[in-house]
Amino acid sequence: MWKNLTLALILVVFLSSCATRAQSGMGAGAAAGAIAGQAIGRNTGGTLIGAAIGALLGYAIGNELDKADQANISAAYENSPDGRTSRWTNPNTGNEFAVTPQNTYKNNYNQDCREAEILATIDGKPEKIIQKACRDQYGNWITQ
């Protein structure tokens, strides 16, 4: 049983290294829940229940962190003029972001749209993307 649990934990850690924060949270939560479930229940049922509860809690926490960064990106689309950079560091992850809107235009549907350069340092690894977003009918910025 411990051999299978150890193999599952290694797999979770490996897969979560290329996942979103929500998915990483889910993997870590599942692993912690499985260990707790095994320690408490000392059977497969307890391990599975612990893994399921841990996965749900971990996903919810990881998803909120992603939402906080996305809210900051949306604020940059809303408030920053072309060429002005908005910067922040996520206090929970230490990840750093710099968003620079570069082009504001109307698309074929007469929606307000913007392009932005996003420089992100996630887990110490710098990444650069160009992202496009347009306003929906409610005024929210939706990435394209």
What's the total number of strands?
A: 5
With strands numbered from the N-terminus, the spatial order across the biggest sheet is: 1-2-3-4-5
Distance between the termini: 46 Å
State the secondary-structure class: alpha+beta
**Which oligomerization state do the chains in this entry correspond to?**
single chain
Tally of domains: 2
Q: Helix amount, in percent?
A: 40-55%
What is the element string, with H for helices and E for strands? HHHEEEEE
Characterize the structure shown.
- 50% of the residues lie in helices and 28% in strands.
- The chain is an alpha+beta fold and 144 residues long.
- The protein has two domains: 2-65, no CATH class; 80-143, S-adenosyl-L-methionine-dependent methyltransferases (Single Sheet), CATH 2.20.130.
- The chain has a five-stranded antiparallel beta sheet, covered by helices on one side.
- The protein is elongated and about 60 Å long.
